[in-house]
């Protein structure tokens, strides 16, 4: 495939492979034609471009990332690969998170995501101990700078035991409201969690904010904050979108209890985002012992109950995950292997496209006529071909034109790592 000579007017991508679900149709992969006219999707017409079955997807949506943490690994590596090791290392590195440092690393991450074909990102931002005063203005600047290339949302990140109706948490929530973000919380079993959540949801409702939780990021079966969140949403009738991420512990609970919790999650209308690569890296890590569990949540059982399930990148080259490049094809590939998405339906590609778009309330009409011709094109013609190779020769079209897919060089960050 070579799109250096792609027509600039009206043209048709002849004989492409597209998942039927992305066209609102039943079935698996289908062969079809996609027209482009004036940078938008249209009916076939104009000059023909033979595609020989190349697979076409809409640009990706990555709804759970940490752009503020990204790429600190060279100066702040995880000492033992554990969750606690990651947490303490990141907290220590906060001293280096000047606006300039955060901006440079965010820019690097956004360049990478854009080159891989991502058009929308939600990022969590560490906000405690005054960090919100530095990171949130940087985020707002990046959102403006990247408008038209990557749509950005931000979510505050703070642990539930630090929640307060006043003080720093209220200041953070006010900043979130002013910048147009999402109110976030990390939940784990603490005394009085239900009361904390009742006050948290009350604050979010009064400020007209949607919410996004890090939930039960542990393999401890006694951690049931997902259940408490669902119960509180049902009790309060909280109407804005509620996202719950990770939800690892439900995979280790007794079957009947876990299924009952998932029934509550579905009834409460919660939106789930699974982070398979990070959870596989951190969970069930014990020195000198091979891991027994994968860390991924119960995505099949959730989806079967009508719960919206998405997959996302999570961390990138930081103490919580040493790898990754904000490549949503890698996320989908690894999710397929880790969570056995194959042989279980034809529409899991929605989990990195249409589903996170709906969950985060973006306007992105996908592959419908009149939508921007924002496409990712792969030489692969079927799923096994797509997932067998990295697809580093993919082509990304934005408004019908091929972008420069050159990835940023890690050396660009060397000065930041040396001055830490």
Biggest sheet, open or closed, and with what strands and sense?
5 strands, parallel
Shape descriptor: globular
The share of residues in extended strands comes to 15-25%
User: Superfamily at the CATH H level of the largest domain?
Assistant: Metal-dependent hydrolases
Termini Cα gap: 43 Å
Architecture (CATH level 2) name of the largest domain: Alpha-Beta Barrel
- Helical segment tally? 13
Spatial order of strands in the largest sheet: 9-10-11-12-13
> Mean pLDDT, nearest integer?
96
CATH-assigned fold name of the largest domain: TIM Barrel
Topology, number of strands? 16
The radius of gyration is 21 Å
Reading the helices and strands in chain order gives EEEEEEHHEHEHEHEHEHEHHEHHEHEEH
* CATH domain class of the largest domain: Alpha Beta
Number of domains: 2
Query: Percent range for helical residues?
Result: 25-40%
Structural class: alpha/beta
- Return residue spans where pLDDT drops below 50 for at least 5 consecutive residues: none
């Amino acid at each position: 495939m070579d799109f250096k000579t792609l027509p600039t007017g009206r043209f048709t991508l002849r004989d492409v492979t597209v998942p039927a679900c992305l066209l609102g149709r039943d079935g698996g992969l289908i062969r079809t034609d996609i027209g482009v006219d004036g940078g938008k999707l249209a009916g076939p017409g104009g000059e023909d471009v033979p595609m020989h079955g190349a697979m076409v997807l809409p640009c990706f949506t990555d709804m759970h990332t940490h752009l503020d943490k990204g790429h600190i690994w060279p100066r702040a590596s995880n000492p033992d690969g554990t969750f606690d090791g990651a947490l303490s290392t990141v907290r220590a590195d906060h001293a280096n998170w000047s606006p300039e440092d955060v901006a440079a690393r965010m820019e690097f991450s956004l360049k990478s995501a854009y080159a891989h074909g991502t058009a929308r990102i939600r990022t969590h931002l560490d906000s405690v101990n005054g960090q919100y005063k530095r990171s949130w203005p940087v985020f707002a600047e990046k959102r403006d700078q990247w408008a038209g290339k990557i749509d950005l949302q931000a979510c505050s990140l703070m642990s539930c035991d630090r929640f307060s109706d006043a003080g720093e948490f209220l200041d953070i929530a006010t900043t979130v409201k002013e910048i147009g973000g999402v109110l976030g919380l990390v939940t784990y079993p603490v005394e009085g969690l239900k009361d904390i959540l009742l006050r948290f949801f009350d604050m979010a409702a009064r400020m007209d904010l949607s919410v996004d939780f890090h939930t039960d990021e542990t393999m401890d079966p006694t951690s049931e904050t997902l259940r408490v969140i669902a119960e509180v949403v049902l009790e309060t009738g909280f109407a804005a979108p509620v996202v719950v991420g990770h939800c690892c512990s439900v995979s280790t609970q007794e079957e009947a209890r876990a299924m009952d919790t998932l029934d509550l999650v579905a009834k409460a209308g919660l939106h789930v985002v699974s982070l398979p690569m990070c959870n596989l890296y951190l969970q069930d890590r014990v020195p000198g012992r091979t891991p027994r569990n994968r860390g991924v949540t119960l995505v099949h059982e959730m989806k079967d109950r009508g719960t919206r399930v998405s997959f996302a990148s999570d961390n990138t080259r930081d103490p919580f995950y040493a790898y990754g490049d904000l490549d949503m094809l890698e996320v989908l590939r690894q999710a397929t292997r880790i969570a056995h998405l194959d042989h279980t339906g034809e529409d899991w590609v929605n989990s990195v496209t249409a589903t996170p778009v709906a969950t985060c309330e973006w306007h992105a009409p996908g592959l419908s006529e009149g939508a921007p011709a924002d496409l990712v094109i792969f030489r692969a013609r079927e799923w096994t071909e797509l997932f067998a190779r990295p697809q580093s020769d993919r082509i990304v079209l934005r408004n019908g034109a091929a972008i420069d897919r050159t990835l940023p060089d890690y050396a660009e960050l060397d000065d930041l790592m040396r001055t830490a």
